[in-house]
Specification:
- With 131 residues, the chain is an alpha+beta fold.
- Helix content is 27%, strand content 21%.
- It contains 4 helices and 6 strands, in the order E-H-E-E-E-E-E-H-H-H.
- Strands 1-4-3-2 form a 4-stranded antiparallel β-sheet, with helices on one face.
- Residues 3-16 have low confidence and may be disordered.
């Protein structure tokens, strides 16, 4: 559980709906939402600011090496959260869009991937077919 340091910014980003979901998994530049406490070490974050709990929020986190998680998306009461399996979504989009034909993984690893993760990515990519 986290506490948003900028609740008005969070509500603005959410466009004013009852709940706000914020993901910076693709954040390569710009600014991350501020929290009163430091976030756990991770590569990707997803936070949910539920209307009845603001400015408190739930923060989910994972690293590059972990499988994509299933994340809750809050719906209006009395409906429960919708569970989104990011791994399944990614696999479906990747396959249907034929990204395996359109993306050349033989290039260099992006600069934002560093250290042991860079080495791990290079190893994973080297095992891909046609590499």
């Amino acid at each position: 559980m986290g506490r948003l340091a900028e609740p008005s910014f969070a509500v603005r980003r959410a466009g004013g709906p009852p709940h706000g979901e914020f993901s910076d998994s693709l954040l390569l530049s710009g600014r991350r939402l501020l929290f009163n406490k430091p976030l756990p070490a991770a590569d990707y974050y997803y936070s949910i600011a539920r209307a009845q709990q603001r400015p408190d929020c739930q923060v989910y986190h994972w690293t590059l090496r972990q499988p994509l998680p299933t994340l809750p998306v809050p719906l209006r009461q009395p409906d429960g959260d919708l569970q989104i399996d990011l791994g399944a979504v990614f696999a479906t989009v990747y396959g249907r869009a034929k990204f395996f034909r359109r993306v050349d993984y033989r290039g260099s690893v992006p600069e934002f991937v560093s250290g042991m993760d860079r080495q791990w990515v290079e190893e994973v990519v080297s095992k891909l077919p046609n590499h």
